[in-house]
Design brief:
single chain; 218 residues; alpha/beta; 8 helices; globular
């Protein structure tokens, strides 16, 4: 399909990935069809397609890792043939007749190597674009603490570093084969990274979607 593009948004929980996903989704890049209901901490929504979220949990549960336990002892997962096949089916179900699409789920930071193997198996690496969303590690830790996910800010910092370590590990063999953009959530809400994101996505983005009043944690 001409001009096909796939966007994967990577970033730790509470890093602004929902804002970026929502920005893309409302600007014509489909982030999915079945989303979680908005909650108080994300009143505009999470923009997490359930199929990707559920499959990520299957991969992580396979090695005994539960995201909601907020542990820092995750060491990675290797997908077997059946799991790669399932991933291919998910990718192809969304890729059919959609020119620009993607997904966002913080769990993908921990499973991105699996997804890139799936995309390689589908012959779609050349269409793949990665958007890494960074945010102040202290702001992320504070936001997790306020939400009640952690009882110690140091644990939040360890979690942040662990997630980004696995982003780097997962991308290490693909950096010359895919397009990667790293942006700062703080810069985005100030407007400083907006043009870079817009250029990377090659689409006119709706600036009005970004609500600075939802910048919890700073």
């Amino acid at each position: 399909m001409a001009n096909k593009r796939i966007f994967i948004i990577l970033g730790m929980h509470r890093s602004g990935t929902s804002a970026v996903a929502g920005l893309l989704h409302t600007s014509g890049i489909s982030m999915g069809f079945t989303f979680r209901k908005p909650l108080e901490q994300n009143p505009k929504g999470f923009f997490e397609e359930e199929l990707f979220r559920q499959f990520n949990d299957i991969l992580l549960n396979k090695v005994g890792y539960n995201v909601k336990e907020w542990r820092t002892d995750y060491s990675g997962v290797v997908a077997d043939y059946l799991e790669i096949t399932t991933g291919i089916k998910i990718i192809k179900s969304f890729d059919h007749n959609i020119r620009s699409w993607g997904w966002k789920d913080p769990r993908t930071c921990l499973t991105i190597d699996v997804w890139l193997k799936v995309l390689r198996s589908c012959g779609m690496l050349q269409y793949t674009n990665i958007i890494i969303v960074n945010r102040s590690i202290k702001a992320v830790s504070k936001s997790l603490f306020i939400r009640g996910n952690i009882v110690d800010l140091n644990e939040g910092e360890k979690l942040y570093k662990m997630y980004h370590q696995h982003i780097n590990i997962g991308l290490s063999n693909y950096r010359n084969k895919i397009n990667i953009l790293t942006i700062s959530y703080e810069n985005l809400i100030k407007g400083n990274d907006f043009n870079r994101l817009e250029s990377f996505c090659d689409v006119k983005l709706d600036k009005n979607f970004i609500d600075t009043s939802l910048n919890h944690g700073d």
